[in-house]
Amino acid sequence: MTAALANTTVQPKQLSQAGLKAVFAILDKWGASAEQIQRVLQISRPAYYKYRKDPAVASLSQDQLERISYLLNIHASLRLLFDNPANQYGFMTLPNQHPFFNGSTPLAVISTGQFAALYDTFRHIDALRGGLW
Q: What are the residue boundaries of the structural domains of the chain, listed by start?
C-alpha cells in the first residue's frame, strides 16, 4: 500500500464521530425521542448524552457502526423517493399499512432496537424507490 493511500484510510473513531453527528441530526428530524435513539443505536443513556455533547469521544462497536450505516441508507432512500423535505422526514412517523409495518410507524419499528427491524425497514423503504431487494 502506498503512503498516500494509507493516509486516506478512515479510522473507526472518525466514522463514529461523523456517523453520530449525521444520525443524530436525521433522527432529530424524524422526531425520535432520546429513548428511541438509544434503542436504535444500542447505546446506554449515559453514553447517549455523552455522545450528544461530544461525538468525538464515541467508541462504537461494529454493530453500532452498521446501525448508523442502515440509518444513513434509509435517509438516502427517502431523499431519493421524495422531493419534499416534509415527506423525507415525516415518512418515518406516519402509520404504514404495509404488512411488514402492520399499521405502526417505521420509526416505532426500528425503535424496538432489533437489528433485523432496522435492516428490514431499510429493505422495504429501498424497495419503494425501486431498489434491487
A: 12-128
